[in-house]
Design a protein that fits this description.
There is one protein chain. It contains 16 helices and three strands. With 282 residues, it is mainly alpha-helical. The chain folds into three domains: 100 residues, Orthogonal Bundle (Endonuclease Iii, domain 2), CATH 1.10.1670.10; 101 residues, Endonuclease III, domain 1, CATH 1.10.340; 56 residues, Arc Repressor Mutant, subunit A (Orthogonal Bundle), CATH 1.10.10. Strands 1-3-2 form a three-stranded antiparallel sheet. A hairpin with a 2-residue loop joins strand 2 and strand 3. Helix 9 crosses helix 12 and helix 10 crosses helix 11. The chain is globular, with a radius of gyration of 21 Å.
């Protein structure tokens, strides 16, 4: 097999490198491609839900919640017309609850601006709440099978290994032209799945990856954990006095106030005269 990295360093991104790279990625996918429920559909709404859920969350945690969420909110209109409390209750266990709030806001905009039909244009998609370059590109490529290159952590891992493995850090703006030139426009959806799976394989094998790719942020004791616990308590009790909430987290009052303030700024909670509850219109 052609040594893709050495050939790239010597010749640049010529047709031989591109062909060998695509063959390697797609060959691995044919033999080892993973199966998930969101890969069995081309429904743009279902794929929007899955892509938002998969952000910074392991697939093993998403599988069960994906089906539960779609059972509760089967289409854009149902999600758009649901309360934030109902959405957060179903979302519990996935973490990063702000994603659920933004997904609901996105559904409301899709309903009012596009009659419930999810747009395929990445420029338009990026105007929706919480939709950045990654989610817009993924929806266009996976839901609509459009040649729309994007970067996520697995794709970054693949390209770092094949084209930049002699460097510890590579900026996305430097990596993106290589991603664009090697993108398989004949089958965007399959190409993205293949890149995802190859990246997972590289991470699991620890194949000479730089430390910046291997690291994961600590959850235990983090602000994320406290945020999630606050929302869980509010979903159970509907509302809590601020001093009672403070008694649940006695170790660092300043930290708790900062986290509550941030949740309030983001629109997830409302603090009314010292009584905290989930925002009714977050």
């Amino acid at each position: 097999m052609l040594d893709i990295f050495s050939r790239y360093k010597e010749k640049g991104l010529d047709s031989g490198v591109i062909e060998a790279f695509r063959n390697e990625i797609l060959g691995y996918y044919r033999e080892h491609g993973r199966r998930f429920p969101w890969r069995e559909t081309d429904d743009p709404y279902h794929l929007l839900v899955s892509e938002v859920m998969l952000q910074q969350t392991q697939t093993s945690r998403v599988i069960g919640k994906y089906g539960e969420f779609l059972a509760a909110f089967p289409d854009v209109r149902t999600l758009a017309e649901s309360s934030l409390v109902d959405v957060l209750r179903v979302w519990q266990g996935l973490g990063y609850n702000r994603r659920a709030m933004l997904l609901r806001k996105t559904a409301r905009e899709i309903l009012t601006r596009f009659g419930g039909r999810i747009p395929s244009d990445t420029v338009v998609l990026r105007t929706l709440p919480g939709v950045g370059d990654y989610t817009a590109g993924a929806i266009a490529a996976i839901a609509f099978n459009l040649p729309s290159p994007f970067i996520d952590t697995n794709i970054r891992t693949v390209y770092h290994w094949f084209f930049f493995r002699d460097r510890e850090k590579v900026a996305d703006k430097e990596m993106m032209p290589v991603i664009e030139q090697t993108f398989d426009a004949s089958a965007p959806r399959i190409w993205c799945f293949a890149l995802f799976d190859y990246g997972v394989m590289l991470k699991q094998s620890n194949t000479g990856l730089p430390s910046q790719i291997k690291k994961q942020s600590r959850f235990s004791g983090s602000d994320r954990q406290i945020r999630g616990e606050i929302l869980r308590l509010l979903l159970e009790s509907e509302s809590l006095p601020e001093d009672e909430l403070a008694a649940r987290f006695p170790d660092d009052g300043n930290r708790l106030r900062r986290i509550i303030g941030r949740l309030h700024e983001e629109g997830l909670i409302r603090n009314e005269n010292g009584v905290i509850r989930i925002s009714p219109d977050g």
